[in-house]
């Protein structure tokens, strides 16, 4: 009897010990996985965090942001400007801590190569592998339009910057899309205000894709409301290097103004000058581009138009910080056309997370961000509740020669308020 009871007792203790070891191993494996995911980093940012929503019970998972940008291709300079601004925006909004509401902020940056199919691949990788909570992007309207359905499918907030096509917050919009970038209609209101009036004849030139066609459609609507007559619309291959036939058709239409919508490195300005468009009595108007493109516009000194941003135009503390920090961080280089947009996107995300106390539940974020105002280098922006388009200032300018600067400088004629540039709701 004694031996039988002893054997049963030993067997019970052995089984209890096995159970304790198994339980301990499971607990240890779970903790190790979280620590590994939190610490995994690379030069572009960070990868692989578990879960898409943070709560007060789990403070270990970082909040992750995926940035899609053209770091190569026709819009490479725009992508690089956006990324610089995004990094500075996180630094500004978190006061250098890279944390919000007790959560570490990490990011992944991917090159779309200015190709929609690549943008889809990179966005999918960010969502499925890197487990990002937010997307930002992209430089190209075509890239951005390709990614919008993924934001809806995976229920991820996407901040659109700097793509401008109206359809992004119009026909192709979904509730997960917010845009800090201005849209084509906002550009159009500013552009039309500069030149349109009763009986003014205007021809247009734009690249033949969503950005260009949406931009011209919006400009035409705004200009015709002011009494102008659009006498010719010309669309060129976005990859073109020879615009001779396009420009000749415009000359033949004999407009008072040529209004140009353009983006990318292969600009038409040199050929417009070579073909002596202005000497034929046709005035040029456009949105003042980035600094590299301004350097090709000497022939357009005196032109009146508008701009999204030039570093001397906004007068506010956020822009002062950006100019000073960018100069010190980038060898005296001033922030460029889309640098403040990247900064604004980062500020918007941090502000939203402050408002939710770090909660990344997508429905709570949408509710928080609709109607949300936040300070940016361009002044106060507000996400309009109806379509999540950020209402913002634009600038009526004249290109002038300024001592010590080797390109035409956009000089402020008048700041156009967010109320003035508010576009129609098109979604």
Walk me through this protein's architecture:
This protein is an alpha/beta fold and 427 residues long. The protein has 13 helices and 18 strands. The strands form four sheets. The protein has a seven-stranded mixed sheet, with helices on both faces. It has a six-stranded mixed sheet with strand order 4-5-3-6-7-8, with helices on both faces. Strands 14-15-16 form a three-stranded antiparallel sheet. Helix 2 (76-93) packs parallel to helix 11 (339-355), helix 3 (116-128) runs parallel beside helix 4 and helix 5 (184-195) crosses helix 6. The termini are far apart.
Number of strands: 18
Instruction: Tell me what the CATH architecture of the largest domain is.
Output: 3-Layer(aba) Sandwich
Q: How many domains would you count in the coordinates?
A: 2
SSE class: alpha/beta
Share in helix: 40-55%
| Main sheet: strands, sense, barrel | 7 strands, mixed
- Number of helices, where a helix is a run of at least 4 consecutive DSSP H or I residues: 13
Described by the principal axes of the CA atoms, the overall outline is globular
Strand order of the largest sheet: 10-9-11-12-13-17-18
What average pLDDT do the residues reach? Answer: 88
Spell out the CATH superfamily of the largest domain.
Response regulator
Low-confidence stretches: 1-52
CATH class of the largest domain: Alpha Beta
CATH fold descriptor of the largest domain: Rossmann fold
First and last CA, distance = 84 Å
Protein name: ABC transporter substrate-binding protein
Organism: Cytobacillus depressus
Domain Leucine-binding protein: 62-400
InterPro entries: BCAA_transport (IPR051010), Leu-bd (IPR028081), Peripla_BP_I (IPR028082)
């Amino acid at each position: 009897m004694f031996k039988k009871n002893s054997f049963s007792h030993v067997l019970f203790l052995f089984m209890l010990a096995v159970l304790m070891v198994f339980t301990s191993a499971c607990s240890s494996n779970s903790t190790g996985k979280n620590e590994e995911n939190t610490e995994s980093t690379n030069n572009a940012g960070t990868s692989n965090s578990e879960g898409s929503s943070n709560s007060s019970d789990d403070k270990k998972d970082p909040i992750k942001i995926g940035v899609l940008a053209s770091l190569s291709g026709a819009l490479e300079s725009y992508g690089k400007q956006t990324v610089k601004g995004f990094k500075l925006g996180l630094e500004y909004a978190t006061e250098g801590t890279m944390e919000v509401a007790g959560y570490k902020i990490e990011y992944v940056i991917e090159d779309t190569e200015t190709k929609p199919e690549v943008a889809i691949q990179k966005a999918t990788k960010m969502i499925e592998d890197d487990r990002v909570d937010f997307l930002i992007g992209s430089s190209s309207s075509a890239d951005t339009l390709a990614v919008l359905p993924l934001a809806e499918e995976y229920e991820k907030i996407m901040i659109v910057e700097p793509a401008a096509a109206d359809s992004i917050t119009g026909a192709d919009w979904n509730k997960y899309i917010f845009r800090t970038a201005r849209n084509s209609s906002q550009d159009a209101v500013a552009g039309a205000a500069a030149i349109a009036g009763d009986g003014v004849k205007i021809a247009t030139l734009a690249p033949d894709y969503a950005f260009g066609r949406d931009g011209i459609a919006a400009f035409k609507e705004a200009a015709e409301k002011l009494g102008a007559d659009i006498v010719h619309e010309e669309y060129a291959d976005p990859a073109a290097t020879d615009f001779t036939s396009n420009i000749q058709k415009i000359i033949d239409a004999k407009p008072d103004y040529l209004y140009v919508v353009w983006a990318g490195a292969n600009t038409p300005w040199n050929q417009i000058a070579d073909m002596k468009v202005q000497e034929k009595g046709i005035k040029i108007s456009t949105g003042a581009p980035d600094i590299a493109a301004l350097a090709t516009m000497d022939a357009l000194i005196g032109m009146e138009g508008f701009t999204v941003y030039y570093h001397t135009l906004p007068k506010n503390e956020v822009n002062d910080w950006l100019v000073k920090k960018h100069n010190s961080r980038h060898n005296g280089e001033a922030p460029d056309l889309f640098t403040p947009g990247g900064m604004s996107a980062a500020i918007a995300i941090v502000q939203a997370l402050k408002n939710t106390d770090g909660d990344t539940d997508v429905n709570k974020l949408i509710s928080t961000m609709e109607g949300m105002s936040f300070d940016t280098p361009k002044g106060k922006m507000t996400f309009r509740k109806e379509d999540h388009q950020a209402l913002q200032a634009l600038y009526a300018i004249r290109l002038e020669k300024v001592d010590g600067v080797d390109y035409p400088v956009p000089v402020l004629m008048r700041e156009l308020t967010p109320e003035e540039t508010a576009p129609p709701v098109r979604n």
